[in-house]
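Exam prep: given the inputs below (a chain plus magnesium ion), describe the expected output before reading on.
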Amino acid sequence: MNVTEIFGSNVFNDEVMKNLLPKEVYNSLKRTINEGEPIDTNIASAVANAMKDWAVSKGATHYTHWFQPLTNLTAEKHDSFIEPSGDKVIMQLTGKSLIVGEPDASSFPSGGTRMTSAARGYTAWDPTSPAFVKEHTLCIPTVFVSYTGETLDKKAPLLKSMTALDTQAKRLLKLFGIECRKVSTTVGPEQEYFLIDEDVYLQRKDLQLTGRTLFGAVSSRGQELEDHYFGALKGRVAEFMRDLDETLWRFGIYAKTEHNEVAPAQHELAPIFSTTNVAVDDNQLTMELMKKVAKKHHLVCLLHEKPFEGVNGSGKHNNWSLSTDTGLNLLDPGEYPERNTRFMLILACVLAAVDDYQGILRACVASAGNDHRLGANEAPPAIVSAYLGDQLGAIVDSIVLGKEYVPKRAVPGSIGVPESPIFPIDMTDRNRTSPFAFTGNKFEFRMLGSQASVADPNIVLNTIAAQKFSEAVDELSGAKDFEKACKDYTEKLLKKHYRIVFNYNGYGPDWEAEAERRGLLNSKTTADAVPEFFKKENIDVFVKQGVYTEKEVIARANIQLENYIKTINIEALTMIEMARQDIYPSVNGYIAEICSVIAAKRAVSERMSCKADVSLAEELSRLNEAFAKAVNKLEKDLNLPAGEQAASQKIAHTVVPDMEEVRRLSDCMEKLCSSDYWPYPTYTDLLYSVR
Ligand code: ADP
Ligand code: MG
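Solution:
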């Protein structure tokens, strides 16, 4: 495989545009892409035609407006390029078809922003993310809005949040005498996933219908030997990864790092970062292609946050930074951060944002799947805090607590083997337990679930950072002694928001109590986290920064709750079905067999011992009775009150505990039941059958 040749071959990228578009059209389009100038509709026909010719040369017969409704997935409706021409057809894409589409919006979630009768929705071309050819179809990235202008997708608010951040960051930089055309946020999302064999997957209704195992006693071997993390790849996994890399590279996605993760059958893929909008699109495409490539290898890629109990779940690390078009990374502390007034101010603004808006940072990553991870000693806790590392931690401590700051510098280190090279030791250690960790020149937001769209946390991060930048500018512009005013303001912010800094073990037992003492939020379920969006100050920040209207914030929060309710409802119904149709009768079958063994033994000889058989049959019978009862209770509790908030509360605090009890009983029985009778592949089959 010639990587440099295939890279980006499915993408209508800069090089292709330069080759195919007339110069003035190309230049006009680039101004839109790079500087955010509104698109000149006069150039649309020329771009559409070039795009169509290029796509047809790649084997495309159809085009689609590719968009991201509020489902975490992407949506596409295909139209062919054909137009009648006499007896024949020609292939055509008009400028109008490139710029707007009109899919029926009525079957997408809108959270009440759109009445069912007003079904009309529009998709509008987003020229800042490149079009690509996938499965004979030209995919044109678009935003999706309703007839009345409310956004119905994740891309429109993401672009708005990027604009807000650009505007406010430029104002802030101007105070420091720095002029630039654009400040963009950059994101590198690390993606975790599981790979399992397709045959075993097809024998598990729960995996097929819900993406996770609803039952399953843990395997005798889990992750305790710590032998999977970074372990050598198994043959089929290595082949899958090679195929995946090649596929992603063709789509211009910078797949870079791949390795085994902590849990058996768990892996990770990290791309090189790009601008947020592109990173979001690329991650959506990556998730889709992972599943498709896995299928080719008779594997199934599970993106659920918690496919298996007892071993780690999967998340997505959102590495986030800001940089100017001139290449300045605003989160780069430089060699002397303590003297870097600009960096320290930006850091203080980011910490203030994370503290003031911790509720919505937590809420934006809340989902039924992610509830299994946050706070479960494998992902950061449900409490938002920021980790700064040794160097920045010490600088902030010196400002807030008046402690003396002993400058820490990167020192040449060596691993102690004479032949090994000397290398500078990093200034920040890794802290895997922090939800929001400073890692050298970026923050890593680690609370995101593995199947979530990367758009959500970035909409929030960009918006709240923009807000704090704008407050800083309002405070500092016109200051007589700017340097002093800036330092004072930085100190004020750091002192006010110091409680959000936590440089220790976030998994530790003391942190929850300490966080409570500091007044930090700790919402453990989606039902408790999402209502943060309804608070006035949280709605205001979106409205002020022009990202959402009040109605949109409320609609989205309601959709999030609705999604949570529906997801758990599906899980509960699947559970009831599996329990009644498969598990309960199977256990009874085994009990019947034991009983006939007892009867047979007794018929032959009074002296044959039946003690073990009797106690096993009794135990299984007792458990199965309790199981049937627990299933009935679960079914009854699925009668939910009206309204998203009330229903989600009942789901979180009644239905989920019911499901845990049903599972607990089943898992006890699985351990006692003969494998001839157990109706499903076990955890050992699921986690260890790929060679
Ligand atoms: P780790 O988290 O394991 O230390 P890396 O430091 O290699 O890994 O980076 C993880 C991710 O962060 C990668 O996707 C990388 O491209 C991304 N990243 C690096 N620099 C930036 C940046 N300035 N902005 C956003 N993401 C970045
Ligand atoms: Mg990382």
